[in-house]
Amino acid sequence: VRMSAKAVFSKYNIYPASLISFGAMMNGTRKTCTFTLENKGILDFNFLIYRADQDALVLRRKRPRSDILLAGDAQGKAVRHQPLLGLFPQGHFTLGMFTVYPGFGSIPPGGQQMITVDCYAEPLGACKEHLSIDISDR
């Protein structure tokens, strides 16, 4: 009896690679940017986007992930950061002046998922947030 198997990891591409900058915006305006998550492998995979924080840095040592930096500036004083509610995946979530959606999903082989980031520059000041993207089986 002849048997064969091929072990593979999920292969993916994220573009733009790591920085989404909204630049300077007038207070009270809204701007939208997107980034794309592409499945370059032969198996479908699941993804989960969440806020990178100190707890995530501990997880990074256990399981690598990809990071995205969001940056915007409404010119003025500092911004308070809103924590994510709960530990469960959310279809969309808000981080400071940014709203990200979808927050999770599945991508088939050769497929793509466009991730939308809305920036609503209401609080005055600069806002930077780090996102982590966890991709299954990589």
UniProtKB/TrEMBL annotation:
Q: Please give an example of a GO cellular component term from this record.
A: axoneme
Q: Name one GO biological process term.
A: cilium movement
Q: Which domain of life is it from?
A: Eukaryota
What is the protein's given name?
HYDIN protein
Source organism (scientific name): Chunga burmeisteri (Black-legged seriema)
Its taxonomic placement starts with:
Eukaryota, Metazoa, Chordata, Craniata, Vertebrata
